[in-house]
Design a protein that fits this description.
Length: 186
C-alpha cells in the first residue's frame, strides 16, 4: 500500500470490501490468530491479485486483534492510507484512528473524506457486524487448499442468512481460488 495521503474530493459512496484469505473449512486464522498457514499455502511467484487490490484501496478497516497481529507481523497501517481500528478496549496505536463507534457511523463519514474503496480486513466478528448492518458491498475470499480444523471463522455469529451472488472467480497456482461475491440484495 504505497499510496500517499492526499486531500480527496468527496464521493457519493464508499464501497466496503471484506477481503481475506480463508481455509477450505472457513477459517481466516488459526485459533491464536496466526496466519502462518496462509503464507505456507501461497505459491512463490503467484501474485493472487494482491498488488492490484492494494492499489485500489483508499482506507483500511479492522478489528483490534487483527491490528495487533498485523503489527506483530511487521505491518504498518495509517502511514500510507487512513486506517480505522475498531476496539472497545484501550489500545496503544500510532498513525491510525481507534474507534469504539459502530461500523455504520464510521462508514457514513468515509464518502466526505473521498474514500471510494475501504478494505475490511477482519476479523470475523467485525465482518459479521458489518454484514448484519448491510455495510459490505463485496466479499473477496482467497480460498486456500488447507484444512485447519479449528480457528477464527470467516464470519463469527450474529448474522442472518445472507444470499450472495458470485461476480468473479479466478484460479491460482497451487489450487487456490479467488472468489468475489456481492450480497444479492444490492
Amino acid at each position: 500500500m504505497a499510496k500517499k495521503r492526499t486531500r480527496r474530493e468527496p464521493v457519493e459512496k464508499t464501497h466496503v470490501i471484506y477481503s481475506v484469505g480463508a481455509s477450505l473449512d472457513g477459517f481466516i486464522a488459526d485459533i491464536n490468530g496466526g496466519v502462518d498457514w496462509l503464507h505456507e499455502a501461497m505459491v512463490k511467484g503467484e501474485g493472487y491479485g494482491l498488488q492490484e487490490f492494494n492499489a485500489s484501496i483508499d482506507a483500511v478497516l479492522m478489528g483490534s486483534r487483527t491490528y495487533e497481529k498485523s503489527l506483530a507481523m511487521g505491518g504498518g497501517f495509517g502511514s500510507s492510507i487512513p486506517c480505522w481500528v475498531f476496539s472497545t478496549r484501550p489500545l496503544a496505536a500510532k498513525g491510525v484512528t481507534v474507534t469504539a463507534a459502530d461500523p455504520a457511523s464510521v462508514v457514513a463519514t468515509l464518502p466526505a473524506q473521498g474514500i471510494r474503496r475501504a478494505w475490511l480486513m477482519g476479523g470475523g466478528k467485525l465482518a459479521s457486524s458489518f454484514l448484519a448492518a448491510g455495510l459490505i458491498d463485496e466479499i473477496s475470499i482467497g480460498l486456500m487448499p488447507v484444512v485447519l480444523g479449528t480457528g477464527l471463522p470467516l464470519f463469527d455469529g450474529g448474522i442472518a442468512p445472507t444470499h450472495l451472488e458470485l461476480t468473479r472467480k479466478e484460479e491460482f497456482k497451487g489450487g487456490a481460488f479467488g472468489l468475489v461475491y456481492k450480497p444479492k440484495s444490492r
